[in-house]
Amino acid sequence: xxxxxxxxxxxxxxxxxxxxxxxxxxxxxxxxxxxxxxxxxxxxxxxxxxxxxxxxxxxxxxxxxxxxxxxxxxxxxxxxxxxxxxxxxxxxxxxxxxxxxxxxxxxxxxxxxxxxxxxxxxxxxx
Amino acid sequence: xxxxxxxxxxxxxxxxxxxxxxxxxxxxxxxxxxxxxxxxxxxxxxxxxxxxxxxxxxxxxxxxxxxxxxxxxxxxxxxxxxxxxxxxxxxxxxxxxxxxxxxxxxxxxxxxxxxxxxxxxxxxxx
Lengths: 126, 126
Prior knowledge:
- 2 copies of one chain form a homodimer.
- Helix content of chain A is about 30%, strand content about 35%.
- The first copy, chain A, is an alpha+beta fold.
- Chain A has one domain: Alpha-Beta Plaits, CATH 3.30.70.100.
- At the A-B interface, strand 1, strand 2, strand 3 and strand 4 of A face strand 1, strand 2, strand 3 and strand 4 of B.
- Strand 4 of chain A pairs antiparallel with strand 4 (about 100-115) of chain B.
């Protein structure tokens, strides 16, 4: 969810399926006051959810944002979905920060990663 | 996969589950020669795959790129995965365009969308 660009740039790797992804695609409004503070707080909170595996974020300037959260199982996602601070942030997001968004929650069946230095690393047939 | 920013900006909406997402997270190399032509060709090709539902893309400048493809079922994804031109593009991607990437293929269990003008639009319990 962060727009920080000072973090080391690498996508979250492939985990052993099954695991869950929450794909959150957004277009934001002009009024982003308070967003970055809440975003930082959500990043902090989600890391404490048992079963949280990681998160990727990309933002086209003036365009689409995509955040992908990775979770070990459905229970982990439910815990995050029901977190009181997270729910309050979602409500404010609909009221202020998001022009529109879509959320897709899905169970990963296969995955693999590639890194130039090390060559292909397959975790599942592809 | 496109970096075009002149398209109307809105995320792909929620479909009736089950459907599939292919989440492709990338960091690109310095050498992007030929990328945009191949990217445009892949966008053209994937639209012809029966069961292709749509695609979202976001790119943080100098950072992470995320492309999410939506497909009606596993067969549609298999067709796309086995496309000869697509396979050639993947091979060139590993050789030239990508520093690293991860692919997560997952079956969507629930989804919903929100648009400011119309209010919340739920396709599944949340």
